[in-house]
Amino acid sequence: MMAQSSPRSARPATLGLLAAGAAMGAAFLWLAARHNLDAQVPEFIAVMLAVGALYSAAIFFVERFRLGAVALLIILAGAVLFRLAFLPHQPALSDDVYRYQWEGRVQRASFNPYTVTPDSPGLGRFQDRRYPIKTGKSTPTLYPPLSELSFSWMKTIPGYKRLYTALDLASVAVLLLLLAASRQPPHRVLIYAWNPAVIVAFALSGHHDSLAILTLLAAILLIIKHRPRLSIGFLSLSFLAKFFPVLLLPTFLKRTRKIYAAIFFALVALAYLPFLSAGARLFKGLSDYAAGWEGNDSAFRLLLVAGNSKAQAELVAAVIILALVAYVLKSRQEPLRAGLILVTAMLLISPNAFPWYFTWIVPFLCFYPVPPILLLTITCVLGYSPVVAYSAGQSYVHSPLMSTLEYVPTYLWLAWLVIQNIRKSEPKTQGN
Fold this sequence. Notes:
This protein has 432 residues and is mostly helical. The chain has helices at 7-32, 41-64, 69-86, 96-108, 145-153, 157-181, 190-193, 196-204, 209-224, 228-239, 249-255, 261-272, 284-292, 299-305, 310-330, 335-349, 362-365, 371-379, 387-390, 400-425. Helix 3 crosses helix 8 (196-204), helix 10 (228-239) packs parallel to helix 12 (261-272) and helix 18 (371-379) packs antiparallel against helix 20. The longest helix has 26 residues, at 7-32. It starts with 6 loop residues before the first helix and ends in a 7-residue tail after the last helix.
């Protein structure tokens, strides 16, 4: 619960917020001035961790003071300016956007992206010659149809960055509506709008996950506003952009009617219809990714270290997620809280948790700002450490040391909170 404060006592907090934002902006501008960030990853990580400290200070001001319209204006202006700092920069830290470009080009040339690969004969011409695709060259697309559609809209790399950053900023607007509907302070939008992982993922690297985030937030807003059919429709769009929102389908159906599941599956089937010529290869890219990739994982790595095979570890992870879905349903968690629980658990138990994946949980933190999870959205920048070797032509391998520094503080903090809650819930024995 936010501490109460008078307008006068909130004035220093507004100035502190402005100072934190100015320092963050200066750091982003300094990074944006670097011509080849892939070759300066240690410096990038150090600066981003410092930015994370400033971001934490900004959250403190939002949570501890009743701020006014000026502070909200500072937050929204900062959200735009931080992203504008990175938009002109060449994509860095990930080359996924070049894969988007290739898939968009082959679609416009009437090829089915679920049947062709970057190393298919005659299709090399669709690659950006300056930035050839390095990974997954023999794997067809793993992305669902709405993502593929968005890839076909743009023709240039700056175009992709502008599109996905615009969708990211649209999420800020929807979050303001959700905060109003939840009767929470609008200033909490800062948790998403100023989050360093979010800004880097979309404005710098050009990831398309903002499409899934926006449609998921729209679905949650609609379910809160008692528009069940539209909410299920937007949830299906979110699934068709990135698969993880399917975890929330049972929660949505619990609040509406189970028959509305037909809307979800009908829209999904309709979206896949133009690509059915792929036949059995329709999900080959996804299955190849699931079988062959493992990166920046935490609890999943512990399952492997315990002696499980990858298949066994995946089975254990699936059982844990299903158990949590059952818990969320039984305890009647509302969609935003259910989203935080399920998506966070999925990332912690998943074999793949790349830094930009953590953008999926940041919107939920605007409503439930759990400190150890907020910390993880800052330390996840350490997950970019393999770019050092990768940019030099070596394998993309995560360092156990970096993973330890990234995850252990969050796990220890979560464990401490659990112990504290257990102690509070224990019945107190009366003295004689």
